[in-house]
Amino acid sequence: MKLYKNFNISKNHKKSIILIGNFDGVHLGHRKLFKLANSYKKKFKLNIGVVTFEPMPKMYFNNKIKNFRLSNISQKNNILNNLGIDFIIIKKFDKNFSKIKSDSFVKEILFKKLKAKYIFVSNNFRFGNKREGNVRRLIKNEKIYNYKIVKPRPLILGKKIISSTYIRSLLEKGDLKKANKALTRNWSIEGIVQKGRQQGKKIGFPTCNIDIQDYIIAKPGVYAVRVYQKNKRGYLKAIANLGYRPTFNQKKILLEVHIFNFSGNLYNKYLSVEFIKFIRKEKKFKNVSYLKKQIKSDLAIAKKS
Q1: Beta carbons within 10 angstroms of residue 240's beta carbon
Q2: Topology (CATH level 3) of domain 2-157
Q3: What is the spatial distance between Cα 175 and Cα 277, in angstroms, rounded to a whole number?
Q4: Which helix (H) or strand (E) is 228 found in, with range?
Q5: Please, which pLDDT band fits residue 219 given cuts at 50, 70 and 90?
Q6: Beta strands 254-259; 118-120: pairing state
Q7: Which of 42, 50, 136, 218 could be cross-linked to 171 through a Cys-Cys bond (beta carbons 3.0 to 4.6 Å apart)?
C-alpha cells in the first residue's frame, strides 16, 4: 500500500475508486464499505485509494476534545493495508485546508488531482469551508467531472447503526464485548512505556505506564489484556488499570499494565495493549492493604481470561 501525504499521486493511482472519511477504528461498518469497494475494483479493474485527514477534523475545530480516537494513525494504516487498499492519502488538516471552498475541493482535488472515477462517502459527509459541501453537491457535479458517487447504507446490527460514535459509547460504558464485536477485533491502545512513580512496584505489582494520548477514555477500571511488543511474535497475558488511581490521588488518566511472569526492562519500548475483558470499575480503597487484596482477586480473573 502506497502512502501519500498530499494529493500529488502517481499516474497509475489516478482514475481510481476513492473512499473519503476518518475511518476511525476501521470497524465492521467500514469493512462493509471496503468489501463493496473491492467488488468495484474487481469489476472495473481499478485501484482503491483512501483519503483521510490528520488530525481528525472534529478534533481540529474543537481543541477541547482531547480523548476521542478509537485508533491512532499507525493502527489505521496497518488495518487498511490488509483490506485490499492500494494507496492512502493522509492529508494534514490545517487552517489553509479547512478554508478550501467545496467547489474547489471537487474541481481541483477530486477531478484535477485524483481524477476519481468512483467516490464512496457516507450520506452525512460534509466538506469544504464551514462544511458547506454535502453529498447532494457531489452528485450534482457527477457528469461535469466524470465521477460516480457511491453512498452505501450504514450497517445495522441489533437495531444499532455500527459507527465510530456508537463504539466510543460502548467503551465509555464498559461494554467491551460489544465494542470488540463491532470492531471485529480487540480494541487496543498503543504507546511508549514511560517511567512513573513506581507505586505498583512498591506494593509488589510492577507496571508499565503508558500515556493514552488522545485515545478515547474507556470506562475507568481494571481489564484483562494482552500485550504485544514491536517486532516480536505472540503476546503476553496481563492485567491493566485504566484510570486515575484514586487510592493514590492520581489526577491524570493513565494506562498501567502488569504483565504476568515477566522480567525485563520495557522502558521506552512501544507496546500494543489489547483489551480482552472488563473486570471491574475503578474505586478508591481505604488503604494499600485493601488494594493489594483486591488486586490478587483481579489477577485470578485476568489469568483465566
Answers
A1: 27
A2: Rossmann fold (3.40.50)
A3: 9
A4: strand 221-229
A5: very high
A6: unpaired
A7: 218
